[in-house]
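Quick one, T. Sequence first:
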Amino acid sequence: MIIYHYNNMNMMKIKSFSPFFAIFIFIFGCTTTPKNSQWVINEVMIVNDSNYMDNFGKRSPWIEIYNNTAKTQDLGGRYLTNDRNNPTKYSIPRGDVLTQIKPHQHALFWADNEPFNGTFHLNFTLDPTKENYIALYENDGKTLLDEIVIPAGIPANRTYGYKQDGVKYDENGNSLATLLDRVTPASNNQIIEENPKVIDLQESDPWGFMITITCMLVVFVGLILLYLFFKIIGNVSHNVTQKRVAESGKLSAVRSESQLSGDVLAAISAAIAEMQEDQHDIESTILTIQQVRRNYSPWSSKIYSLRQHPHK
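Structure tokens:
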């Protein structure tokens, strides 16, 4: 009887909690939104008249695929297609080091229908007159990794994709694919154009007077501080040197206490030494200067340049 009563109590508890579990699963199951895939067909150009060129100098439609993870992934062995009924239309070759796409980086494929031009040249092209379906499949050719539908009538040299790399859905699960304002092949779709701090500074100081005065003040204050610093260091060093020389008791202490330079002190010392030893020359102070007057200049005289006859 006790065992039966215990089992009945457990069954009653389970039955009482089951409605709460059902409500919990229903709420969280209904609020789930589509997740962004690991590979995203990020940007597509249908008509390329005057835009990006490939390595052969040709302008063709292109497809940009974005690695939407924080790890390096290999596109080799996966499939690109523009046909819903043929998911394995173009097999991305394996073993190409360029198919190793780093985290949050891009790979650009040319839809030029020339697959022999290299790994990133597809065997199909895109039609600007109709809707274009593009999909990326896993290595098994069955698992869909990502897909996008490009509407017809995309203007020339404009792209269709996502404004923020790899972000396909909003909070309500709606697709964010749209006609992009900027063409950014193999680069980030979202570009930060302006710095908010720079914009605020331009509004508060349109002529630049404030920032000019501020920069000048910073420079002059820095120079003054450097001058004071080196001045103080120089005075302290000079005082310490004089103190050490004075304490040494040598003759150079006199020099340290005086304001004369070393050259002047050396000259005075040499003069004193000569006077003490009485060694100096005594010479005649008679000097005769006689001016010679000539009417011609020996430098222009012809007698020095003409050949003279020998004397008999």
